[in-house]
Structures are given as structure tokens and as C-alpha cells.
Amino acid sequence: MMGTMNKMTQMTACTPTIDYVNAGNAGTPFFRIDVAAASLSMIALLTIALIILNDEKLKAHPNKMIAYVFLCDAYLFC
Fold it and tell me: How many whole angstroms separate alpha carbon 16 and alpha carbon 59?
């Protein structure tokens, strides 16, 4: 039975015998979308943090702390 199923059927059926990481799919069918989403999120976090830290009106107490949280989150995406 296992020899007749293709890899996509095995992946959706949660068959533990499939080798998920190979050169063809890089570990997940949506790998490129995940990389693009993480990159976009990192850029957005850095942009907002730099805007907060560079504008004098936005440097109030909670905003400065939020900017540092955004910087830490962006670092973790790296």
C-alpha cells in the first residue's frame, strides 16, 4: 500500500515513513512562502522600531519599550 501512494498523499495522511526533508521540497511545500512571510515581518518590525526610536514625539515611555520589543522580535526572526 505504501508503495502506491505518492509523497503528497503520504504527507497529508501523516504517514511517518515519508522523508519530509529532501532537495525537492526543502522540508515543506510552503517553504518559500514561510521565508517570504518571515522576511516581511522582520522588515516591518525593524521599520516600526526605527521610526519610534528616531522620532522625538514617539519616544515616550511605553513606545520606547515597544520599540525595543520589536527589535528583539526582529532579531529572533533572523
Answer: 52
